[in-house]
Design brief:
Elements lengths: L1 H29 L1 E11 L6 E10 L8 E6 L2 E7 L10 E6 L2 E5 L4 E5 L3 E2 L2 E2 L10 H4 L11
């Protein structure tokens, strides 16, 4: 009577261990892993400019380089991943002034000017500042054609 109970108990323990091992393997193989390393906020007339440094991985997180991201509100304006064992690109030296943001990443220097748009037109812009769609898409008939 002891032998069948021992076999069932060992089988149950092996089943539970197998389920936990399978769940761990599946999470390591195809799970989403995110770790926030550092975050800073900068005041701006555009709203809060947020700089964050993080790691983001799908699958086993092994030797993942960090990423930096700059966002204004819910819009991401810059996101880059460092090269393996390199310092760049890594967003730094962020400056805000009026409706512009500037930063560098070790490879390039960026300067972004943002303008609010209402009804498809920039605020404060005249209606004739840019050619209309019909003017930009017009085609002329080539000389010497039979049309």
């Amino acid at each position: 009577m002891k032998r069948p109970l021992t076999v069932v108990a060992v089988g149950g323990v092996m089943l539970v261990i197998g389920l936990f091992a399978g769940a761990f393997f599946q999470n390591a193989r195809s799970g989403y892993h995110f770790r926030l390393l550092e975050e800073r906020d900068y005041a701006s007339t555009l709203g809060t400019v947020k700089w964050s440094c993080f790691t983001e991985t799908v699958g086993f997180p092994f030797l993942d380089p960090e990423k930096t991201m700059i966002s204004v509100g819910n819009r991401t304006i810059y996101k880059a991943q460092r090269d393996f064992q390199e310092n760049d690109p890594h967003a730094r030296n962020i400056e805000t002034s009026g409706n512009s943001i500037s930063w560098e990443d070790g490879d390039y220097r960026y300067h972004l000017t943002m303008q609010e748009v209402t009804n498809g037109e920039p605020v404060g812009a005249s209606n004739r500042s840019q050619p209309s769609r019909s003017e930009t898409n017009s085609t002329s008939v080539a000389a010497g054609s039979d049309r």
